[in-house]
């Protein structure tokens, strides 16, 4: 499996392009903005985009979905609980000053718990509500890679003070993720990737969904992701790209 990370939009969200080396079939995870940048890379690599996978329904993860679907006929998938964000701008939380326009894009299918194959890559969909009602993580078990969206960052986790957020749900989602294989490579929606064992060091052994932890879900998340108005794009106003070989070290960089 080949993985390319492209930072998009002024929140610098990681959009991931995941491709099968043999067929060049590809899935795009969380195309939040800068669709021209994403499409340019796809064209240069001669990928065949078959699916667009959304970890949740916030604007900085879905605004580019319409253009990629239009260009390749790719199918759009999201958890059913977050599906309204694809057709109702207000629910997507798109700010009025966002550069990328909102284009209603009804989903073609829903991400349900369990094993699925998209673009010749097997994923296990792990429901992880809390940041939103329909958040999911995507585990490519064969390659030891976990895409966590805004559920989990390096030493932090998603905020719960936005529409659909619920700290108790996020607490249970994090506990579920803590039980996964420690050798996994975690690719979050913001900032760098890390081994799961390293991320675990950022959490205390036991934590409880108390009022204190509810406050941490807001203040802690802001250390990993600033509020909507608090991040800037790079000086060129464009996303940045990062290459990730897959977790077991046998992948290759994508040029």
Task: Compute the average pLDDT.
Answer: 82
Helicity, as a percent range: 10-25%
| Biggest sheet details | 7 strands, mixed
Number of helices: 7
The rough form would be described as: globular
Write up what this structure looks like.
Helix content is 23%, strand content 26%. It has 255 residues and is α/β, with parallel strands linked by helices. The longest helix is centred in the last third of the chain and has 14 residues, at 211-224.
Question: Topology, please?
Answer:
Elements: E1 2-8, E2 13-19, E3 25-29, H1 35-45, E4 48-53, H2 59-62, H3 65-72, E5 75-78, H4 89-92, E6 109-110, E7 114-118, E8 121-127, E9 136-140, E10 145-149, E11 152-153, E12 156-157, H5 167-178, E13 185-188, E14 194-195, H6 196-200, H7 211-224, E15 241-244
Parallel strand pairs: 3-4, 4-5, 5-6, 10-13
Antiparallel strand pairs: 1-2, 1-15, 2-3, 7-8, 8-9, 9-10, 11-12, 13-14
Compact overview of the structure:
By secondary structure, this protein is α/β, with parallel strands linked by helices.
Short key terms for the protein model shown above:
single chain; 255 residues; alpha/beta; seven-stranded mixed β-sheet; six-stranded mixed β-sheet; 7 helices; 23% helix
């Amino acid at each position: 499996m080949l993985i390319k990370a492209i930072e998009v939009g002024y929140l610098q969200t990681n959009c991931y392009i995941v491709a099968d080396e043999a067929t060049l079939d590809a899935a795009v995870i969380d195309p939040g903005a800068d669709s021209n940048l994403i499409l340019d890379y796809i064209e240069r690599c001669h990928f065949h985009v078959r699916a667009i996978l959304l970890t949740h329904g916030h604007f900085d993860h879905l605004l580019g979905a319409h253009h990629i679907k239009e260009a390749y006929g790719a199918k759009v998938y999201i958890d059913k609980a977050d599906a309204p964000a694809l057709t109702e701008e207000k629910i997507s939380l798109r700010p009025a000053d966002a550069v990328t326009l909102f284009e209603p894009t009804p989903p073609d299918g829903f991400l349900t718990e369990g094993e699925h194959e998209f673009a010749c890559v097997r994923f296990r969909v792990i429901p992880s509500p809390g940041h939103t009602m329909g958040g999911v993580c995507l585990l490519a078990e064969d390659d030891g890679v976990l895409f966590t969206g805004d559920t989990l960052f390096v030493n932090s986790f998603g905020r719960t003070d936005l529409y659909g957020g619920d700290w108790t749900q996020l607490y249970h989602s994090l506990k579920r993720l803590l039980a996964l294989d420690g050798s996994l490579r975690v690719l979050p929606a913001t900032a760098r990737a890390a081994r799961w064992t390293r991320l675990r060091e950022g959490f205390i052994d036991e934590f409880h969904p108390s009022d204190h932890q509810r406050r941490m879900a807001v203040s802690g998340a802001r250390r990993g992701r600033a509020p909507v108005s608090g991040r800037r794009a790079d000086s060129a106003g464009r996303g940045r790209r990062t290459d990730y070989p897959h977790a077991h070290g046998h992948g290759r960089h994508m040029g």
